[in-house]
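Predicting holo structure, calcium ion bound.
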Amino acid sequence: MKGLWRCAVLAMCLVISFASGTTAAPEGRKVIIDTDPGADDAMAILLALNSPELDVKALTVVAGNVVVEQGLENALKLVSLAGRCDVLVASGASHPLVQQLVTAEFFHGANGLGNVELPAPACRADTSFAPDLIIKLVHQYPNKITLVPVGPLTNLALALRKDPSIVPLVKEVVLMGGAISGGNATAAAEANIYNDPEAARVVFEAGWPLTMVGLNVTGKTVFTRADLNRLARTQGRENDFAVGVLNFMVDLASKLGGNGTPMHDPLAVGAVIDRSLITTQDMWVEVETRGEFTRGETVASRHNSSDRKVWRDGRYVIDGVEKVNPNVHVAVESDGKRLIELFISRIAGK
Ligand code: RIB
Ligand code: CA
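Done. Tokens:
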């Protein structure tokens, strides 16, 4: 009986998907979103699933905001809500490479979705381990896949270590993480990097095309109570869910003294949809893994050079500068208001 029920629900999802026109856009840019859903992750995922510019091939789940089991359930509920069982969903790393897991239910709700309940998922998980699914899809679509990590970078690091040949086959990595003007998890470190600095170091040193969408630009994408009231004027399954989650986030931001909630992860997805939402500067960026106060900091060299020192007359003497090749396109500006408009235009009424 249960199997019959699942088939009926799945059929309904497929009908809704076809009717609402939210099926994959085969000509869209192929993306894999690596995520720790997560309230803002959920908004980013809905934005991606409702944007014809993107062909979302998979959601790969990593422990971060919530434990990986909860993240997998949330990811399956999100693709089911959008009627997108065509999107592969796989579970990944349950803890960072080295340190202990730090979860953030305080910021994302006990269930990771702003305590908004969704029906049991109609879509089923892919049985692959997430890093293996990343490897498989990158080889299946050489030079076509854009990786969009919006959580700790553990899955990407594991995929890279298992199969370094994926590096030249990935079109681009556009990640939400890092910062060049102070952190949020600590004074120096942004949460996604802070939650697995060793994994971040592997990703930043890989040599693939890497764009960093950090706090210095996501901080300009504040979703306010007025934005929420606008979105609440329309209805729909995804629309209403987003209103519920964003209400939790805006309420919490208000309690913490803010005038709205930053749309961290949606900006990374937005930048893949429309690159003009961000402006980047090429920089040499290293990930601190040892600092007592700075572990997890993304240390960016804005001028891509360092002093060259020689030992002379009993001291070091600077006799020039060493150029360093930049490894990251660092987002230094963002159009936060246009990101909010893009998000509302894609979710309103869905
Ligand atoms: O620092 C913000 C990031 O940490 C976002 O990805 C949010 O979801 C949390 O994971
Ligand atoms: Ca996230």
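The chain has 13 helices and 13 strands.
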